[in-house]
Design a protein that fits this description.
The chain has 96 residues and is mainly α. Helix content is 34%, strand content 8%.
Length: 96
């Protein structure tokens, strides 16, 4: 999922997530693909092989647009924020 920063008075999803120490939202395209294919951390009781994961691909991620990944979406988020059009359905739709 792509999410933005600084939208409206509450801040964007990315702003909130980045307030968690160590949480990353910026990934190169290759890192993003690896993240989705990697096993999720959990307690090892799920698959018992001692590697600390459950053995299943994560298949989910929340990242922010960057210059290399969805650069137009990054600009649209910023534009919606500064023009007070966060709630504009056509502009919301353009981000999907």
């Amino acid at each position: 999922m792509m999410a933005g920063r600084g939208l409206g008075h509450t801040g964007g999803t990315i702003d909130k997530l980045e307030s968690i120490p160590g949480f990353r939202t910026q990934y190169a395209a290759e890192e993003f693909a690896q993240l989705l294919l990697s096993s999720s951390p959990s307690n090892d009781t799920n698959d018992g092989d001692g590697d600390g994961d459950c053995g299943e691909p994560l298949n989910a991620a929340i990242v922010s647009p960057s210059e290399n990944m969805c650069p137009a979406d990054k600009r649209m988020y910023a534009l919606r924020d500064v023009t007070s059009t966060v709630t504009s359905p056509p502009l919301q739709t353009s981000s999907i």
